[in-house]
Every structure is written in structure tokens, then in C-alpha cells.
Write a structure and sequence with these properties.
heterotrimer; A: 335 residues; mainly alpha; 12 helices; C: 336 residues; ABC transporter involved in vitamin B12 uptake, BtuC; two-stranded antiparallel sheet; 72% helix
């Protein structure tokens, strides 16, 4: 009388699987290299040190913008307020500088504000059980409104370039802005937290079965609040960097970032851990999008065509991911 | 046996005007498997919730190993050594068995910012398996596991906390096949040998004699009896009678008199669908009930869905009243006069947040709108009222959301929906899963009533149910039909047919 | 809850809504007497027509438990499309038909992607909306279109009056009436609601649920086109940012209405959008800068969903327990 709890052992095609894994892990990186080569064939200016510096500069800001967002989406929630939080932080920073505050205090205040918005989002989602889309649409509206109100609807100029400007402008080897280093450091830290700490594990478990995570006593509500707070804070930091980069506060700066941010996170979610937004994926996808846009500009495509390309890219990526998930589910059912 | 590991005395709980528990007396001895019995509403689930810290008692005392305890949250119960495995354990599909077992405990109490020690987890899992010798490969993801393996993971998860003395299992067998159930019972025996006491809730009364050492019966918020299995066997008591408080009549209605069946309504000819089932062939006549016995995985569920068009078959014919119909969707099937009472009524049968009035006309909106477009609202209300009365819905309200009813009454709403659909063929899949014994007889009577004017198929993994309700039976084994050699199956032949694939052992 | 003082839950909600309308109207009238002037009331009616149509479209999508964030993009693209057709000298009805056809097409794209291919609604509609926003620049590279607008007669939609009320208001009332009838009195409506409540159970009841999800997105796009038509009629030109201001009021109207009325429905959206439009117009009348309006609408939206959420109701019930010495009936106990 032997127990047969385990089903028949399935000899997994190990080698084939690991090869397939490399493909799924790194295809976006390969696509990035291929695209860079293809565009630089047509427009060698793409690889000019100056252009590389420009691409990396906006890359750094964009990565910071989506750092927190990546985890929010990975946990199965959504945050559409991040770009307006960035706009609000951007305007707050500029307005405070105009008031005569120092850069340090202005940065701290702007990031604190982003943190507060994130906490409100997270609190309403976790404690009041409200749908995250509705909550963040509403807070996005309020942030946009507040950002515009700070400058009475117009741009605020910043006279003093401040310390961040140096980080953005100074380059190593003429092509790598210094800001890239702390940004990548932050990404490594986030990657470590995501891969090695219990928190990272809970984020993905929540997306699959939140009830299971609640049942074992993990403070899921607190994690949700934390994720939204991180999203708010990182978006605010991006807004501050934008203020330094543009030497001004731009109330309508957020608009373009919504679709960029979501594209980056979802495109990135198709590599490394397929179907799961992750930090490494977001970083790669940000660079991919940055090169694509820079190349498109060099090739003379107008803004709106870039927007169409990006929308198409988002939908294609989404369709591929959905199709892959369906095939996966199908195979699983066949077992 | 020694002092009881768990002792409850005069425990009471009230929900508003409803007295859910009334001075319950209960005890559990070390290392025993104790079955907790009672119909829905008897108070056993409230009692379990108090023991696991989900609900707080109003009065009374509970002691664990001689120490009085007060549970304010589930963590308190676990700390006192009482772990609960819910009826549908929640696990994370993409995580491995051991990752699920230690979910929330990866970091030795250092919280969510602690580092996960993957190797440590594997070592802890190995230690757990050494203590409870469960033959299971925990390195696979839960998604790759069978139902009983998931149950085992959930049990190990409950036992992974320190010093668990009491394990509460809430209807663990409801989703398992017979074979898997035997595996679970072996697992329970292993735990018993390790000195774990178990409280075991089930609706399957025959299981009580198989696995339990003793049992308690709850009725009307009180614990009305506690007995050892040996005594119960010696005295020949009827568990059903104790649960209902009165002698239970015959559960199954009388069968149709031979030769009274009418015309053939549904014919299934050589129906096949991939690996699920092949060459299924049968007729059902008006006035009769055809029983199909098949274990989980036998293809029963898929066969029902194929006839109903929800999961179209690949080959074969389906004829209704002699006309070929090959439904490509439930819509086609309903148009052809086939109605399915699905096994999973909560997801497939009902809009749970809506009332009976909303649910009943859904499968026949043509009737609800008098073949037109505009709904005849008064007619719908009158019909719904009549049908809820016919199925004896309790309470007979059209304004309570379906989620507010017990399993048996939810099934009655689905039945009323079927009545409204006016089908010629009714297919029931697991008609009494999650239905307590008090409501079962009513459901069976309604099925028999439906068969007066229609052809009825009852598919179930409960052999006694199939044998008790049906006029004719057949078994499905690994997608293949097992026909009786002599016209009808005896109960044991049916059981063998479904488990072994042949009528003769 | 023991409802001795409450007539019925439905009646209580209608009373609450009426009280809110009266309070809001009174407050604005006190602050600015011109609020009750004919010109302002006509303005409210006009704005409500466009906002209300967008909100109605969203209502269908929310009933099948999805979201549509392509509203602004679809509005921009169809506005420029209709503008281009009018500028080409074709009659108004052709422009409207072309606009509606484009709307149906876009609704089909989103709807089919979501219902047939199972793509996630939020991101899909954001993508579609983004492409549409880009496509809006195709015709003129972003310049305003105004040629032939006056001659085409489109502005009559804005100016003409019937029985003392603007045509656009009649338009709105007519379409809401039709929608109410379809959603709450016909089998189509029952199928829509069944699809939203439990798509699997609806499918097993013979309802083609995917078709209804697709239909909801098509209806949403069509309503958006109609809203855009009214906006073009009011402004007399087509610009790429037309309809950028449709989305927030639509979301706020639908969810505020659902919160007040206890569920998403055609009438709830009407109630919600009435309140939102009164607010927006009142603030505009008082000379509050434009950039506050989104913030106020957002605040109202958030306030509405928070106040009427289950959690808040639980807290309120908890407070009520403190007042009378009577225990509340516990919800969720199994009956039977």
C-alpha cells in the first residue's frame, strides 16, 4: 500500500528549457542592440557622444519615474497618477525655489509631497478597498490641478541651476551623465529587494492570489500602502530631476509620461520573468524606448507619429503577452 | 487517553437576534480524529470560526491543554497550537510547494524586509517531511500539483507553525476523488501517529466510520451528542437521524415504474472529445433519469459541458427529439432544449450578488420578453414567485442576493432557473455538492419531479447518489463508457465500473 | 439595519440626491445670483449634454465591469475626422455618419481585443487612445479646422431651441431615455447586467457575453462621438484637444452617480453628471480658474466613492451602534 501523493514524475527537457529561458530573458536586450545597429546604419549621429548623453539623461529620469510603478503593476494593481505626481513635484520644487527656498529644502518638500499622495492612494486602495484605477485617476486630477494652480497655469522659471544640474550635465567620457550611476545603483538595490527579500516574493504572490498571502498573516494592506508610497516618491523624484533638467516647472509635463510609463513597464514585463513586470525589464525597456525615440527623431518622424508607434508597440506587446499567457494556461490544462 | 487537549465549556455566540451557539460543551482528546457533524445552520462552522480565532465568542470558556485561552485573531489560535485548513485552501499557483508552506515565514520573523534564505526553506521543508512522512515532491509549483497534493501542502503549511497540537480540517474531501481521499486519510493517520489531534468536518457520513475515532453532532446551536465510533458501531446509531433530530425518511424518491418512460428525447451517438472522453453513446427518454457515475477526471464534467455546448465535442452526434443538434455554445444548447445545472454553481450557475428574481429568468430571456424584446416584468415576477415556491426556497424571498443563501438553497435557485428555461433535457452535475443532508432529499425530489416531463441525466462522483436517484445507470472511466452487461448495474458493479473500468472485479 | 425611519433604501437615495442638487444650487445662488439666470441654466444644459453623453457611454462599459480610458483619444480623432469631412464641403450628415463609423470601428478594435483576445482593458484602451491621439494630427498636423463649419449647419445643434429648451438638451434626454429603456426594460439590458455580474454564469445561461462586452465598448465610442459632435457645434471648429475635458467629468459622473444610487445604471449616471456639471459651471461662473476644475471634479469623485464605499458604511454602522442600545443585525450570515 504505497501512497501516491505525487503524480508521475515529469522528466523536464532541461536543456531545451534553459535555452528557451535565455531567449525569453534577453530578447528585449537583443532587440535593443539590433535596433541600435539598424538605426545607426542610417543615422550615425545616433551614436555621437552628445546624443548618447541626451538619451541616457532622459533614460535616467524615466527609470526613476517607473521604478515604483513597476512594483505596483507587478502586484496586480495600477497607478495612473504617477505622471501627475511628477508634474506636481516639478512645480512644487520650482515654486519653492521661486519663493527663495534652497534646493535641498525644495527637493525634500517635493518628494515628501509625492510620498503623501502615494500614501493617500495606497491607504484608499488597501484600507477602503476602492478600485485603484478610480482612486489614482482622482488623485491624478487633483495633482494636475494643484500643479497648474501653483504657477497660475503657466511655467515657473528656475534661475539657480542647483546641484542636480551638475549631475545631469557632467558627463564621463563625454557620453555618460553622472546621474546614470546613482540611478543604476538605485535600480540594483531595487532588483536585490525584488529578488532576494521577502517583500519581492509577496508582491508577485499578491498578483496571483492575494487571499493566500493574507491567509498566512502577511500584512498585505501595509505592502500595498508601501508600494503606492514608493510609486509616489519615485515619481516625485523624477519630477524634481525634470525641474533641474528643464530649469523650470512645467505644469503640463505629466501628460506624455502616462503612456510611456505603462509601455515601459509592460514591455519590460515580457523579459526576465515573463508576464511579470520587474525592475530589470523596466530598465531595459526604458532604454529601448529612449533609443527608439531618439532614432525616430533623427529619422525626421514628427511627434505624433512617434506617439502612434508607441501605442502600436504597447498594443503589440500586450497582445504577445496575452497570447503567451493563454498558451501557457492551455499547456497547463493539457497536463 | 489523559486530559483533553481542547475543552470548550458553555460557549455561546449570538449574531443579532440569531443564537448561533447556545452553551456548547465540547472536548477533544490528544491524538484523536474527531468528526464534527451537523446540517447547515447547526452552528458547527461558527464553532470552528471561534476555535480558529476568526470570530469571538460571547461567553463561555475554552482551554487548550489546561490553559484558558482568548482568541482575538487567527494568530492567537495558531500561537495556542490550533491550526485550521480552510475548505478551499488558498495557495499561490506559481510558487513551489515549500515556498507556499513557508509563505509569510521566510525570514524567521524579520518581516518583509528580511532576506529570503532559499536553501534554509528547503532544509526546513525537508525537516517537516521527516517528521510527517508525506511522500510529496515539494519542489514543483502548486499549479503542477493534483488536488490532494495541494491539500497536503495546505496541511503542511498549517503544521509549519511551532507546536501545533490541534488541526482543524474543513471539508477537505469535497474536491477529492475516492482514490485521493484514501491518500488523505493515510496522511491523517500519519499525523495522528505524531500526536496531532484533528477536528474533521464532512458532509460524507460514511467517511466518519472510516477515519474518525469519535464524533460530535451539532444541532440548533448546541452540541447534542458526543460518541466514540466504537460505541456508535455497537449501538448501530444513525448519524443522519442524530443530525436532523428525527428519523430521516428515504432520501431518494421512488423510481419510475418500469415501462412508463416515454419517447427518446436525447440521443448521444459516438461523442468524442480529445483526451477527455471517447465514443460515448446513450439515449434518455422522457420520464426517466439516467445516472452517470464517474470520478473526478473521468470526463463526466467535460461530457456534460460538451452536450451543453460549453466545451464543444470533436466528433459524434447529439440528437434532441430525433433532430440533430450539435451545440457550439450554451446558447445553441438552450435553444435545442438542453439545460445544464452546473457542478460549480457559484461561478457557473448564479449571479451571486443578485436576487432570485434577477437569476431565474436569465436562461430564457425569450420567455421573459414574451418572444419580443421588452421584458414582461409582472409575468416574470409571478413566474419567479411560483417557481421559488415550487422548489421550496427558504426564505422564499425575491429580494435577497443569492450569496445570502445556503448551498442547498442556491441550488434551488438554479433549479428554479431551470424550470423557467422549460427545457426538454436537464443535465445535473454533482447536484448535491455542498448541500447538507436536510436539503438533499428535497433536491432529489425536485429532480424526480422534473423527470415527469423531461429527460434527466444526473452525473456525479457519488456512487450512492447515482444509484439512488437514477432509473438506469452507466459509468464513465477515463473517458470510456462502462455499460452494464445485464441491463442494469448493482451498486457495487457501478462502483467498480467507475473506479476500475470494468463491471466485474 | 432596522429601517423604521427609512422609507426604503431606493427612496432614501433619491431623496439624498435631490437634497444634494438643492443644496448645491442654493449655495451657488447665494454666492453668485446669476447662477439661476436663463443664460447660465442654458449653459449648464449645454455642457451637461456633452458630458452626459460621454458618461452614458462609459456607463455601458462599467456595467460589464470594464474600464475605457480611450475616451479622450477617440474624441480627438473623431473630432478631427468630422471636421475634415465638413471642411471638404460634404454635408453635415455625411460627417456625422463618418464620425459614427469611425467610432464604431474604434469601439470594435478595443472591444474585440478585450473580449475575444482577453487583453487587459485598462492598458488596451490606453494604447488605443494614444494611437487615436496621434492619428488626430494626420489631417492638418495639429492645426484647427473651421472651414465650412458655419455653412454646414452644425452650429444649429447648439443654437436652435425647441419648446424653450436647447436642442442639445432634448438630444441628451432622448438618448438617455432610449438607453434607460434598453438597459432596464429589455432583454438586452438584462443580458448586459448579467454579463457584468458573472460572465461565466451568463455564458451558461445562453448569453453571448463576449458580444455584449464588445457592444459596450462600441456603445461607449458612439456616445463619445455624439458628445464630440455637440462640442464641435458649440465651438464651431475642430481641434486636436477637443474632448480632452470629457474624461474626468464622465468618470466622476458615473462613479458618483453609482455611489449615490447604490449601483451603476443609466439614471445613476444622469444624476451624477447633473451634479458634476452644476459644480463645473458654478465654479466657472464664479470665475474660478480653469485649472481648478479638474481638481474639484477629482475631489468630488474621490469623496463620492469614499463616502459611499462599503468600508465607510461599516464605520457609519459602527457609529450608529453607539447611539441606540440596540445591536445591529449582522450581515452575511447564511440563511437557510
Amino acid at each position: 500500500m504505497s501512497m501516491s501523493l505525487s503524480g508521475p514524475a515529469q522528466p523536464a527537457p532541461q536543456r531545451k528549457r534553459s535555452f528557451a529561458r535565455i531567449i525569453t530573458n534577453l530578447w528585449l536586450l537583443a532587440a535593443l542592440v539590433a535596433m541600435t545597429l539598424a538605426i545607426s546604419q542610417q543615422r550615425p549621429q545616433l551614436l555621437d557622444p552628445g546624443n548618447i548623453a541626451t538619451v541616457l539623461r532622459s533614460f535616467s529620469i524615466m527609470v526613476i519615474m517607473v521604478l515604483g510603478l513597476t512594483w505596483v503593476i507587478a502586484s496586480g494593481k495600477i497607478d495612473v497618477s504617477f505622471m501627475q505626481v511628477a508634474a506636481l513635484a516639478n512645480m512644487t520644487c520650482a515654486a519653492l525655489l521661486q519663493q527663495g527656498w534652497g534646493w535641498g529644502a525644495a527637493i525634500a518638500a517635493a518628494i515628501a509631497l509625492g510620498l503623501v499622495v502615494g500614501l493617500v492612494n495606497g491607504g484608499l486602495v488597501a484600507r477602503m478597498k476602492l478600485p485603484p484605477l478610480i482612486v489614482t485617476i482622482a488623485t491624478a486630477g487633483m495633482c494636475a490641478s494643484a500643479a497648474a494652480a501653483l504657477g497660475k497655469g503657466t511655467v515657473i522659471r528656475i534661475a539657480d541651476p542647483g546641484p542636480l544640474r551638475g549631475l545631469l550635465e557632467t558627463t564621463l567620457f563625454g557620453a555618460v551623465p553622472v546621474i546614470v550611476l546613482p540611478v543604476l545603483g538605485l535600480c540594483l538595490l531595487a532588483w536585490y529587494a525584488q529578488e532576494r527579500l521577502a517583500m519581492g516574493r509577496y508582491i508577485y504572490a499578491m498578483a496571483q492570489n492575494e487571499a493566500a498571502v493574507v491567509a498566512v498573516g502577511v500584512p498585505v494592506g501595509r505592502i500595498v500602502v508601501l508600494l503606492f508610497a514608493l510609486s509616489g516618491a519615485s515619481a516625485a523624484l523624477a519630477g524634481v530631476l525634470l525641474a533641474a533638467n528643464l530649469s523650470s516647472g512645467q505644469p503640463t509635463i505629466g501628460g506624455a509620461y502616462l503612456i510611456n510609463g505603462l509601455t515601459v513597464v509592460l514591455l519590460g514585463g515580457m523579459m526576465v520573468h515573463v508576464g511579470k513586470p520587474n525592475i530589470l525589464g523596466s530598465v531595459t525597456a526604458t532604454l529601448f524606448l529612449g533609443v527608439l525615440f531618439s532614432g525616430a527623431a533623427l529619422l525626421g518622424l514628427p511627434d505624433y507619429q512617434r506617439q502612434i508607434i508607441q501605442g502600436a508597440l504597447l498594443l503589440t506587446g500586450l497582445a504577445v503577452a496575452t497570447g503567451a499567457a493563454r498558451m501557457h494556461a492551455h499547456r497547463r490544462k493539457g497536463n | 487517553m489523559g486530559a483533553p487537549v481542547l475543552l470548550a465549556s458553555e460557549v455561546s455566540k449570538r449574531f443579532g437576534p440569531v443564537k448561533a451557539l447556545d452553551k456548547v460543551e465540547f472536548h477533544l482528546d490528544p491524538g484523536e480524529v474527531h468528526a464534527l457533524l451537523g446540517i447547515n445552520g447547526a452552528g458547527k462552522s461558527t464553532f470552528i470560526k471561534i476555535l480558529s480565532g476568526i470570530v469571538q465568542k460571547d461567553s463561555g470558556t475554552i482551554t487548550v491543554a489546561g490553559q484558558e485561552v482568548h482568541f482575538r485573531a487567527p494568530e492567537d489560535a495558531i500561537r495556542a497550537g490550533i491550526a485550521t485548513v480552510q475548505q478551499h485552501p488558498e495557495l499561490v499557483p506559481d510558487m513551489t510547494g515549500y515556498e507556499n508552506i513557508f509563505l509569510g515565514r521566510e525570514t524567521h520573523g524579520r518581516g518583509m524586509l528580511g532576506r529570503v534564505d532559499q536553501r534554509g526553506l528547503i532544509a526546513r521543508a525537508a525537516a517537516l517531511l521527516q517528521r510527517f512522512a508525506v511522500p510529496i515532491d515539494l519542489s514543483r509549483t502548486v499549479a503542477q500539483m493534483s488536488a490532494v497534493e495541494r491539500e497536503a501542502v495546505a496541511i503542511l503549511q498549517a503544521l509549519a507553525a511551532d507546536d501545533i497540537r490541534v488541526l482543524i480540517l474543513d471539508e477537505p474531501t469535497s474536491t477529492l476523488t475516492d482514490v485521493e481521499r484514501d491518500d488523505l486519510f493515510r496522511l491523517m493517520n500519519i499525523l495522528r501517529d505524531q500526536g496531532i489531534s484533528m477536528i474533521y468536518i464532512t458532509h460524507q457520513l460514511e467517511e466518519v466510520f472510516e477515519i474518525a475515532d469519535s464524533f460530535s453532532v451539532f444541532r440548533g446551536g448546541r452540541c447534542v451528542a458526543r460518541m466514540s465510533i466504537d460505541d456508535a458501531r455497537a449501538q448501530g446509531v444513525s448519524l443522519a437521524t442524530m443530525m436532523l433530530g428525527e428519523a430521516m425518511g428515504e432520501v431518494f424518491p421512488p423510481k419510475a415504474a418500469p415501462g412508463t418512460a416515454g419517447e427518446v428525447i436525447l440521443s448521444v451517438r459516438g461523442l468524442s472529445s480529445g483526451l477527455d472522453f471517447a465514443d460515448v453513446q446513450f439515449d434518455v427518454r422522457q420520464g426517466e433519469i439516467l445516472g452517470v457515475f464517474g470520478l473526478v477526471g473521468s470526463g463526466c464534467d467535460e461530457l456534460a459541458k460538451a452536450i451543453f455546448g460549453a466545451q464543444p465535442a470533436e466528433r459524434g452526434q447529439i440528437l434532441v427529439n430525433g433532430e440533430e443538434v450539435m451545440p457550439g455554445s450554451p446558447r445553441d444548447a438552450l435553444a435545442a432544449g438542453i439545460f445544464l445545472v452546473p457542478g460549480d454553481r457559484r461561478t457557473e450557475g448564479l449571479a451571486l450578488t443578485r436576487t432570485a428574481l434577477f437569476n431565474i429568468p436569465l436562461a430564457n430571456l425569450g420567455r421573459a420578453s414574451g418572444k419580443g424584446w421588452v421584458l414582461r416584468r409582472r409575468r416574470i415576477r409571478e413566474d419567479a414567485q411560483r417557481m421559488t415556491a415550487q422548489v421550496a426556497l427558504h426564505p422564499p424571498s425575491l429580494t435577497i442576493p443569492a450569496s445570502g443563501y445556503s448551498g442547498g438553497n442556491q441550488q434551488k435557485i438554479v433549479l428554479a432557473k431551470g424550470l423557467y428555461a422549460e427545457a426538454d433535457v436537464y443535465i445535473f452535475v454533482e447536484p448535491t455538492v455542498g448541500v447538507d443532508i436536510g436539503a438533499r432529499a428535497k433536491i432529489y425530489a425536485l429532480i424526480r419531479e422534473l423527470a415527469q416531463s423531461a429527460a434527466v441525466i444526473v452525473m456525479s462522483s457519488d456512487c450512492d447518489e447515482v444509484h439512488g436517484i437514477a432509473d438506469r445507470t452507466l459509468a464513465l472511466h477515463k473517458g470510456r463508457q462502462v455499460e452494464p452487461a445485464m441491463g442494469t448495474f448493482s451498486r457495487d458493479q457501478l462502483l467498480m465500473g467507475g473506479i476500475m473500468g470494468g463491471a466485474h472485479p | 439595519m432596522s429601517g423604521r425611519f427609512i422609507l426604503s433604501r431606493g427612496a432614501g437615495r433619491v431623496v439624498a440626491f435631490a437634497a444634494m442638487v438643492l443644496a448645491l444650487g442654493a449655495a451657488f445662488t447665494l454666492a453668485e445670483p446669476r447662477f439661476l439666470s436663463n443664460a447660465n441654466l442654458a449653459g449648464i444644459a449645454r455642457h451637461m449634454a456633452a458630458n452626459g453623453l460621454a458618461a452614458l457611454g462609459l456607463t455601458f462599459v462599467v456595467i460589464v465591469r470594464r474600464f475605457d480610458l480611450s475616451l479622450a483619444g477617440v474624441a480627438a480623432f473623431t473630432a478631427m475626422t468630422m471636421g475634415a469631412v465638413i471642411a471638404a464641403g460634404l454635408p453635415l450628415w455625411v460627417a456625422v455618419l463618418v464620425g459614427l463609423a469611425v467610432g464604431v470601428g474604434l469601439g470594435l478594435v478595443s472591444g474585440l481585443a478585450i473580449s475575444r483576445f482577453g487583453m487587459p482593458d485598462i492598458v488596451t484602451t490606453i494604447g488605443v487612445g494614444s494611437i487615436c491621439a496621434g492619428l488626430a494630427f494626420l489631417y492638418t498636423g495639429g492645426r484647427s479646422i473651421f472651414q465650412n463649419f458655419f455653412q454646414s449647419g452644425i452650429t444649429d445643434l447648439n443654437d436652435a431651441r425647441l419648446l424653450g429648451l436647447g436642442v442639445s438638451l432634448w438630444f441628451l434626454l432622448g438618448i438617455y431615455g432610449l438607453a434607460w429603456f434598453v438597459m432596464h426594460r429589455t432583454r438586452t439590458g438584462a443580458a448586459f447586467y448579467a454579463t457584468g455580474e458573472n460572465p461565466v454564469a451568463a455564458y451558461y445561461s445562453g448569453i453571448p457575453t463576449r458580444r455584449y462586452v464588445t457592444l459596450a465598448f462600441v456603445a461607449c465610442a458612439v456616445c463619445t462621438v455624439l458628445a464630440v459632435l455637440l462640442i464641435l457645434a458649440e465651438s464651431g471648429n475642430a481641434e486636436t484637444n477637443k474632448g480632452a475635458n470629457l474624461m474626468m467629468p464622465a468618470y466622476a459622473g458615473v462613479f458618483l452617480g453609482a455611489a449615490i444610487m447604490g449601483g451603476t445604471s443609466v439614471l445613476a449616471s444622469f444624476a451624477g453628471i447633473l451634479l458634476i456639471t452644476m459644480l463645473l459651471d458654478g465654479f466657472a461662473l464664479m470665475g474660478v480658474p480653469y485649472y481648478y476644475s479638474d481638481g474639484v471634479v477629482s475631489l468630488i469623485l474621490l469623496g463620492g466613492v469614499v463616502l459611499f464605499s462599503d468600508a465607510a458604511r461599516g464605520w457609519l454602522a459602527g457609529l450608529l451602534v453607539l447611539l441606540p442600545a440596540k445591536a445591529p443585525a449582522t450581515q452575511g450570515e447564511k440563511r437557510g
